[in-house]
Amino acid sequence: MNGNELTTKEKVLRMLEKENDYVSGQEICDSLSLSRTAVWKHIKTLKEEGYTIDSVNNRGYRLVNSPDIMDEKHIREHLHTRWLAQNIIYLPETDSSNIQAKHLGEYGDKNGTVVVTDKQTAGRGRRGREWISPSGNCYYSVLLYPDVRVDRVSMITLIAAMAVARAIREKEGLETMIKWPNDVVVNGKKVCGILTESSTDLEYIQYVVVGIGINCNQKEFDKEINNMATSISIEKGKDVKRARLLAGFFDCFEEYYDIFMETEDMSKLSDTYNKLLINRGREVKIIEKENERILKAVGINDMGGLIVENEVGKQEIIISGEVSVRGLYGYV
């Protein structure tokens, strides 16, 4: 059987997923050329795997709920990529998906390989900060071998933020924005963190690992960050099917990454990014070492730098430093 061909059990599941109402056992039998006993056995197996399925005499079967499983099989059910995530490594628990992906990069694993985990014991954010990684969220890393100069790597982080924002919007129906450079924001609070790491040789890249953590089904946060962070579940009032969201991200990221590699900059993506930029047209505090300035954000340029201007309209490009947005994250 080819790797993309559905098993009979998966075909039964697809029939149930397509209908909001009951599907008769006879309809399943006729469609898949199965006996009643075979259908019952497949339904039983699906229930054992965590699917909630109602059975009613003379009406058939109805899928009530699907398990929130984030392994390779469940991601592939929703995946439409050509090269990204064709190799998926699922680890129920690990130290860090980035650490694991970097190991794979050292051994030259396949471009577009992804490492996915339910829980990290040593997750890290920017500047070596600890990234708390409770179960129920999405933690994953993408391994890439971009043939670009070292100074282009930071733009891949912006692309990842665009893909997360779009996947959440399309799959979960929430309005998403981006706080430059890569914080994805829902209702004024951070819902995603991104850490991009690379191995370089002089001016060129050996490999890049993009690590992403999306707050999916987390119900509460420590009081220190409660006013800054949220989750999709909190904002929607219902839990997220993480495999579907992940597949949505991979679809979006592949599209944006391919466009980026055509030009090796953000020239064909900056308009899309700027529409998502929550800083745009707002005052931002630029923090560079011990120096702080208040300027207005205009958007990003083709290299992913933040264009800012002062009160008389003089513009400059911010490449490094930390940007705080007035009205967000406790900055008033």
How would you portray this structure in words?
The chain has 332 residues and is α+β, with helices and mostly antiparallel strands. The protein is 30% helix and 27% strand. The protein has a 7-stranded mixed sheet with strand order 3-4-5-9-8-7-6, sandwiched between helices. Strands 13-12-11-10-14 form a 5-stranded antiparallel sheet. α1 crosses α3 (36-48). The chain is elongated, with a radius of gyration of 22 Å.
Summarize the structure.
The protein has helices at residues 8-18, 25-32, 36-48, 72-76, 97-106, 153-172, 232-236, 242-263, 270-276; strands at residues 52-56, 60-65, 88-94, 114-120, 138-144, 177-179, 183-186, 189-201, 204-214, 283-288, 291-300, 306-309, 315-318, 322-325. With 332 residues, the chain is α+β, with helices and mostly antiparallel strands.
Count all strands and give the number.
14
Give the strand content: 25-35%
**Cross-sheet strand order for the largest sheet:** 3-4-5-9-8-7-6
Largest sheet data:
7 strands, mixed
